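Lecture notes, part 5. Sequence design as translation. It can be helpful to think of inverse folding as translation between two languages: the language of shapes and the language of residues. The source text, in C-alpha cells, appears below.
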C-alpha cells in the first residue's frame, strides 16, 4: 500500500537550516535512505521510497551542502590562497586570476592575508588546513621555509607565485624579471636618460626584488659606456630619505637626464609623490618606469610608464599547476615565467 508523505507543518525550519534528518522525518524514512537518494539519485531505492524522498526534498526546499558532500567523497574542492598583502594591487590582480581558474575547474578559494607579517605564514597553513583545503597557492613574503615544510607534512601540493622560498623544490609561476627589467631599462636608455636609479622596498631575501635589482645592475654594467646607475632601498614611511636619494641622483648626474625604475606600484606612487614635493615634472625632470600597471597609473601626472604584469595569466597558471598536481601529475618542479608588457606614457617623454 502506498505511503502518504507527511503534510508540512507550519513551523518548518528555514531551508538553509534543514538537515538530512529533517528530510527523513518528513518522508518517514531513515537518514541513510535520504543519503542514498542524494548521493546516488535514487539508485537502490524502491520507486515508492524514491518518490517519497523526492517529494519531501521539494516540499522542504532542501539543498544538500556542497561542502558536506565533497567531504564525504574525501575532497573539499577548496584551494588555499595565501597572499603577502591584499591591499597590494598585484596581489588583488593575481587573486582574480586564481578565482576565475578555480571557478572554471569547480573549486573555491579560501584566502589568508598575511598583511606583510612574516610571523603569520605558518599560521596561514594551519588555519587553511583546518578547512581541509586540498592544496596551496602561496604568494608569501618568501622568508619562512617552515610554512612550506608544514604543507609538505600534510601531504598538500604547493605552488608558489612571484617569489621563491629558499631552495624549495615546488612549482613556481612568476614574471620573467630578467626580460622585464631589460625592456624597461632599454626604454629609458632609448628615451635619452643617462643616469638611472632602481628603487625597491627593502630587498631582504625576497627573490623577485633580488632578481630585479641584479638584472638592473647587469644592464648598467653592459651599457657602462653610455649609462650609469645604482640601487636604493626605500624604507616604508621614510620620505625624507627617498627625497634625498632623488636629489643625489640629480646632483651626481650633472646635466645628464635622470630616471627611476620602480620595483613595484607602491614605489612608483611614492616616487611620483616625491617628485611633486621636489617640484619636478615627470618625464622632463625625472623619468619614471614602474613595475605593475594599476588603474591609477594613467592618471598620475602625465601618466606613468609601466611594466604590466600578466597577473590574470599568473593566477590562472598557478591554479592549473596545482590542479594538475591534485589530479596526480608526477612531474619535476616547474618554473613558469611569463613576459611583461611595456606600457609607454608621459613619464618617460623628455620633451
Amino acid at each position: 500500500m502506498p505511503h502518504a508523505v507527511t503534510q508540512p507543518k507550519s513551523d518548518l525550519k528555514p531551508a538553509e537550516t534543514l538537515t538530512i534528518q529533517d528530510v527523513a522525518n518528513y518522508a518517514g524514512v531513515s537518514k541513510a535512505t535520504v543519503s542514498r537518494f542524494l548521493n546516488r539519485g535514487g539508485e537502490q531505492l524502491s520507486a515508492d521510497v524514491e518518490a517519497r524522498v523526492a517529494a519531501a526534498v521539494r516540499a522542504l526546499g532542501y539543498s544538500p551542502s556542497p561542502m558536506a558532500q565533497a567531504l564525504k567523497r574525501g575532497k573539499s574542492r577548496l584551494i588555499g590562497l595565501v597572499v603577502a598583502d591584499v591591499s597590494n594591487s598585484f596581489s588583488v590582480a593575481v587573486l582574480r586570476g586564481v578565482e576565475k581558474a578555480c571557478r572554471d575547474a569547480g573549486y573555491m578559494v579560501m584566502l589568508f592575508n598575511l598583511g606583510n607579517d612574516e610571523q603569520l605564514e605558518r599560521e596561514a597553513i594551519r588555519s587553511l588546513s583546518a578547512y581541509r583545503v586540498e592544496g596551496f597557492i602561496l604568494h608569501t613574503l618568501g622568508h619562512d621555509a617552515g610554512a612550506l615544510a608544514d604543507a609538505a607534512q600534510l601531504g598538500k601540493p604547493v605552488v608558489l607565485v612571484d617569489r621563491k622560498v629558499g631552495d624549495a623544490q615546488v612549482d613556481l609561476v612568476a614574471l620573467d624579471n630578467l626580460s622585464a627589467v631589460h625592456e624597461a631599462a632599454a626604454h629609458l636608455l632609448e628615451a635619452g636618460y643617462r643616469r638611472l636609479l632602481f628603487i625597491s622596498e627593502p630587498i631582504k631575501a625576497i627573490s623577485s626584488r633580488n632578481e630585479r635589482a641584479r638584472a638592473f645592475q647587469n644592464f648598467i654594467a653592459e651599457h657602462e659606456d653610455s649609462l650609469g646607475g645604482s640601487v636604493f632601498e626605500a624604507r616604508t614611511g621614510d620620505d625624507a630619505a627617498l627625497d634625498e636619494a632623488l636629489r643625489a641622483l640629480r646632483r651626481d648626474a650633472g646635466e645628464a637626464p635622470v630616471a627611476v625604475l620602480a620595483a613595484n606600484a607602491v614605489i612608483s606612487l611614492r616616487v611620483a609623490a616625491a617628485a611633486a614635493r621636489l617640484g619636478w615634472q615627470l618625464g622632463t625632470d625625472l623619468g619614471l618606469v614602474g613595475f605593475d600597471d594599476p588603474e591609477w597609473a594613467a592618471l598620475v601626472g602625465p601618466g606613468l610608464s609601466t611594466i604590466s604584469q600578466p597577473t590574470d595569466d599568473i593566477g590562472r597558471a598557478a591554479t592549473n599547476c596545482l590542479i594538475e598536481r591534485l589530479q596526480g601529475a608526477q612531474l619535476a618542479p616547474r618554473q613558469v615565467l611569463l613576459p611583461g608588457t611595456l606600457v609607454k606614457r608621459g613619464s618617460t617623454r623628455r620633451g
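The translated text above is only one of many valid answers, since several sequences can fold into similar shapes. DSSP finds twelve helices and twelve strands in the chain.
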